[in-house]
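Internal tracking record. Fields below are filled automatically when a chain is submitted to the structure queue. Please do not edit lines marked as system-generated. If the sequence contains nonstandard residues, flag them in the REMARKS field before resubmitting.
Queue: standard
Priority: normal
Entity type: single polypeptide chain
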Amino acid sequence: MLEAGGVNEAKEVRTPVGLPKLFKSALDWNLYSTPQHAANKRSIYLARGKLLGGSSATNATLYHRGSIEDGVHGTGGLMRVENPRYNNPLHEVFFQAAKQAGIPENDNFNDWRRSQVGYGEFQVTQSRVAVSRGVTFQLNCQDGNKHSAELAPGGEVVLCAGSIHSPQILQLSGIGPQGQLREKGIPVVVDLPGVGKNMQVCSLPSK
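SYSTEM-GENERATED OUTPUT FOLLOWS
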């Protein structure tokens, strides 16, 4: 495994409530989008983890199954999933307001056999687990040289660097829109216009 960043032993990583302190920290890539027309030409901050486990180590630990086949809850295993142990005093007030407004209650957002519309509890993992096997690879080493690794004969690469860094790595490797690659002086290996296009992100309002 080749992973950017360091270990994920910081207390802000191990404790879900520490999530806000990870934003724009040394454990974050501190990325911003290009100016967006739909956001009054503002650049949008894009939180991405720069540590072992990537953004999976810098999230709110919400747990949500993504397929109908996973609709039945299991027990045991390495990942403990449960309702949040702490609720803000406004928690029940918000639920009561939703009920009074006629919004249906959803007591299980992981049950894909029915509509997911409604208010209710999201399950969380109370701890984050990140396992690594292999090496940490650093391009700019202390000796001032750039090092590379070669793939063994018959080997394959599984690229899972997230929605931003995956297309970046592909484009730097010559896979992407040929016009854009040539503009940056990158030799074209595969002309694949969709690389780096059509990303959608859910932004949160703030002061």
